[in-house]
Input
Amino acid sequence: MAERITPRTLKGFRDYPPEVMIPRERLIDTARRVYRSYGFSPIDTPALEYLEILAGKGSEETDKQLYKFQDHGGRWVGLRFDLTVPLARFAAQHINELGVPLKRYHVATVWRGENTQRGRYREFMQCDFDTIGTRSVAADIETALVIHDLLQAIHIGPFTIHLNNRMVLNGLLEKLGLAGQSVPVLRALDKLAKIGPQQVAEEMVAQAGMTAQQAADVLKLAAISGSNQDVLRSLESLVAGNALGSEGVARLADLLGGVRAAGVAEERIKLDVSIARGLDYYTGTVFETTLDALPGIGSVCSGGRYDNLAELYTSQQLPGIGASLGLDRLLAAMEELQLIEKVSTAAPVLIAYFDESRLHDYLRLATAIRAAGIGVELFPDAKKLGQQLKYADRRGFRIALIAGGDEFAAGTCQVKNLAAGTQQNVPLDEGAGSLIAAIQEMLTG
RNA sequence: GUGGCUGUAGCUCAAUUGGUUAGAGUACCAGAUUGUGGAUCUGGGUGUUGCCGGUUCAAGUCCGGUCAGCCACCCCA
Output
């Protein structure tokens, strides 16, 4: 016997069986539909890019996580680790043909060679949407609305979109004479919920070179709470006299007003000065979205505004705003909330292969039902009916069609509702119209 | 990248602490009136105890390595 190769997957890489893939695709479809409804258009870019494009950001961490190698022509190449860098390159290369604003969405796989943990894999999918080429707060509002509609569309229950604006913090830092220290400050601030104000203050003193008083002043910002209007008022007085900070507060007010005008319920939106997002390229509005039922899993949709997306690749100024749906997290949440039905068939109807001499009749039936836009599977073997029904049940089919000699003689077909256990005899008329109507009624009812 | 925990059937777990042929539930397959599933009954073990090596008369059990998973740190563009 030949030596066998052990079937296995790489660390951090996953197989997706049907019952995982079906809800996954459904979620992605919903995201695409919502993105499109706002005029975002799909793009795609190569998985593999010149290493210099990907490594352009130059941070050590990036470099460590990047999958890189020499291709057959000796070129140094790497797998994309997010969709933002490819977008920047794409925009720099094509913006003159496409014009602004450029509204695109991109659903694609990315790779990071980082250490794995629950929910952190080396290959995963991102679902980004961005608006490039405008500073208008209208784009910020629209981004919030897309997040809102998306979460609404997946029926996952109440959620909260947390809003902040980097300009507020940067304005405050300017006022305190700490301009330029926003990166270490944000990094420390981001840990607030985890390690508490005391340790955050210590880290700020140690990492950002702040005095204890300055750290306390910054933490004062993070401690602001109350209704959105209360927060706005507190922020106004905190950054009073600083142009940047005041603009940030004004933009938050505009964003809030716009979202409200578009009909979003008040409780869906929360000004939250404590959210920072770890990413240091955000310069204005930042978003995080949590599920009220599962705050512990963190943000399921995050993003923000950046000043200059493509500065590494072009002299053209390309401001933008966008966000990314946390697909894996969202699916984990749906699983935990038991919103995912265990289904491993993509078609709702199974035709039992009952009578071997009737194969052509079954095929004609299937064709007619498919033509009506309904997915049908014909069981491939003329096994015992009980087994076929068991198969239908296990896979999660909704309806089984049963037709044998008796039915064909009477010119009918049995339509069986598998969940309810009920069934009815439907005449097989020309074009199977009655049958299709019965199926449709059963599927919607 | 650092440190810790774990790895037995598809899944959840057992195996008297090193003792001889690795078990149970569930799932799966076949059958129980060759036309009706989710129930019941019968039969079937489907496993290189993750992998490689070491210690020992004897290893699922102890040791080392490796691979994988989980947790914390780091980081998360």
Notes: The domain at 9-157+293-343 of chain A is CATH 3.30.930.10 (BirA Bifunctional Protein; domain 2). The longest helix of chain A spans residues 18-37. The CA atoms of residues 88 and 310 of chain A lie 5 Å apart.
